[in-house]
Amino acid sequence: MRVIRRNVQKLILMGSVASMFLLLYVLNSEQEDVDKSLKIEIIERSIRSMMNQGECRQPHLPLDNPEIMKFYKLVEKINCGSKPDWVMCEKSICFVKPEISAIHGDITCSYTDIIRKSDYTARFGRTVRIKEPYVLQNSDFVRVACHATSGERWFGMAYGIRDTVQRPPAPNLAPNLAVLPPEVVAQAQQQLQDLPTTPFYNVLMFGFDSLSRNAFMRKLPRSYAYLTQQLGAIVLQGYNIVGDGTPQALVPLLTGHTELELPETRKRVSGSGSVDAYPMIWRDFARLGYLTSFNEDLPYVGTFTYRMNGFDSQPVDHYLRTFYMQASNMLSGSAPNCVGNQPDHLVMLDYTKNFMMKYRDSPRFVFSFHGGLSHDSINLVGAADDDVHDWLVSLKEKSLLDDTILIFMADHGNRFAEVRATLQGKQEERLPFFSFAFPESFKKRFPQEYNNFLANEHHLSTPFDVHATLKHLIHLQTSGLYELTPDNNYDNLSNDIKTAPVQPRDIHISEQARGRAISLFERIPNNRSCADAYIEPHWCACLNWLPLTLNDTRYAGIIFKAASSIVDTINAATVERRQLCAPLQLVQVNWALRLQPHKELLEFKTNIDRDGFLADLSGHTVVHEEFYQLQLVTQPGQALYEASVAHNLHTFNVTTKLTDISRVNQYGTQAKCIYERDPELRKFCYCRE
Ligand SMILES: [Zn+2]
């Protein structure tokens, strides 16, 4: 009896401990949710603010502004050493380069497949030792060791596009004959003869990290000229960022959502999941039978692997990350910006082209995004101009662009260089390079959509719009098969694709966020404001900013108040790490701006005719809040910060959000003590020791 009772007590105790943990878990996860919806609310309040609602006027940003041009200089080509790599692959065939055999005679190589296990690890396949070419089957990437009869040896890596990726075609649509077994192809071809089918357009997206529209024109003039003059690319003049950093650009572009709206994937949040939960646009293409590829260099700061957990399953058919991850181990002795004897950017250009060539008869979606040259330097990307130009020429010459929509783009402008400390640099940061080039057949097949796109060239546009455009492209090519959503919103299209898996349930989108995306194949209204486009005022390049004279007594008080609020916000963020991070003090304010709402906006009362053509400008809108933007220096560490500050005109309180504070000079080793413990505090922490 006593034994039973003791067991019961034990069970009750275990049960209550377990439920306590469960409660803690629930509270924790609820806290994150509350936190998220609160953040969205704050962001949306600032998006709705009065001064954000004016019709967008793009700032005039001269290319040759001497204030900016003083940071630009010419750079040498990337030098990866004089000894060429021995082995290369074309599509799936890897072989010793003929010029190497000519020098060294008979060469035998051992090939070992590098197979992805996760975004962070790989395993090696069986090693095959042959003189003949090696066919990639289990992976796109191989480790290669060769020796020649001359006694010379070579060790390195090679990449191609493996042979065995298959994708079942979507029902009622043209199958990808190139990737199916011969007997299936024969059968499909028979059936296809009776079916009216039109080919799908490929999507080839290539991007550079941190390249504004102006910087692209300055640093890649040959590529720019070829894109715009030979390929007829349309450069979006009003393409504006919607947040700070790479994920804030690429997540909306690839999913149509902000990170806050999507399931939790941040590494530091316990219980967070993988990025597999994101509704990536390439999945929509894959569902139609497209072959897919997504490629980034810089594996340690990958868009989805740096702060986020990365992908559990390989997200696309061909995924260059696995190569770069291994290269950082195996070829760590390579020269800067090189993998072995090949420049990093050439690897990506080449892999992308190989992918386009390999599946000539199938629809393809590829997104390659290069950061190595452009992320930390305003000048280095100039070293790639000739290569990018030649790559574009060769795509064109090989007819790979005949049925391809080429999207050449960037995520945002330069962020860390001193150039951002100037007013124009700051505006350029918000206006990344973004261009589309359409094949002639597209213009003929979809003239209305193409004309709309042309009309949008100078209008305010965002990553949300590009996402909606890609959705619209899918719809255009499958119209009749899939229904549009009732509100005609291309951004929600995948819900209606019958073969689509159910969207993850934990994607939340507010009323305000609905309608923020406009497909570029539709007309963007002339008077679109940053509020309409879901851009917060401080990211919106269209706004009128009034520079303030620092020693003007009318502004000295508010400038000091705003500066103190920024420093207080930083110190509040590090207070729990005070044993590691020193408190910061204000040294000086470099510049301050006041955000000016449009005069017309303040005076707009109502429409005076029923059609809404004419406005009654006799009104007087009360402004409740105004925004300031400051750049300041703190010590210790001489940190340079830029931040937006809201000034309430009723209470005279000033407030700053931590997320609105950017560090604009490098923190380098200053934040060493916090790297592992709390990486999100890096830009705010000056380590005491
Ligand atoms: Zn970036």
UniProtKB/TrEMBL annotation:
Domain of life of the organism encoding this protein: Eukaryota
Gene3D superfamilies to which the protein is assigned, alphabetical: Alkaline Phosphatase, subunit A
One Pfam family this sequence matches: DUF229
GO CC, alphabetical: extracellular space
Protein name: GH18743
